[in-house]
Write a sequence for this structure.
């Protein structure tokens, strides 16, 4: 360095090298690690929450092609299935559970009654559908409970109604 300034008392001071700060203790190191760890958790949590928000929002609905898996899954939702016991043996709950375990949307299981709320006896088990659109689902339901006949009738309000007759027996496991 060029000597442009006159020599004073600062020029005669000893030259110290290295860093000029207090030494870190073990406590300082642990606190630094904890701060970094907490910051990493906060950043990861915000990232995860942001991704879940985007996943559940409808931001991209207008941009999805119609053949996307989410669009086809919602279009193939199973219709509601009602199970009615017309055999007088209170088998509707058991048959309903069989269909639930098979993945069907069972909305109810009860005893078949007439307009006066009296039980009705039916001899033959049938699967009643309100429209031919439900035939494939009805036939797979029929296969699960012993292959009863599938008929189309507007008699019941639900799209698929299983009417258990006195001929129906729960499968033995």
């Amino acid at each position: 360095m060029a000597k442009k300034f006159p020599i004073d008392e600062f020029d005669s001071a000893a030259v110290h090298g290295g860093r000029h700060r207090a030494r870190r203790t073990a406590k300082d190191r642990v606190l630094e690690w904890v701060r970094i760890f907490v910051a990493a958790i906060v950043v990861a949590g915000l990232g995860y929450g942001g991704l879940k928000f985007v996943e559940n929002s409808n931001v991209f609905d207008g941009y999805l092609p119609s053949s996307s898996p989410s669009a086809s899954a919602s279009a193939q939702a199973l219709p509601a299935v009602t199970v009615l016991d017309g055999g007088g043996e209170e088998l509707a709950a058991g048959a309903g559970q069989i269909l639930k375990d098979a993945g069907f949307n069972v909305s109810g299981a009860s005893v078949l009654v007439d307009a006066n709320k009296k039980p009705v006896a039916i001899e033959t088990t049938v699967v009643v559908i309100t429209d031919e659109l439900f035939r494939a689902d009805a036939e797979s339901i029929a296969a699960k409970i012993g292959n009863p006949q599938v008929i189309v009738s507007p008699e019941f309000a639900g799209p698929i109604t299983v009417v258990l007759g006195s001929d129906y027996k729960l499968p033995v496991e």
In short: Residues 67-75 have pLDDT under 50 and may be disordered. Strands lie at 80-85, 105-111, 126-129, 149-152, 160-164. The radius of gyration is 37 Å.
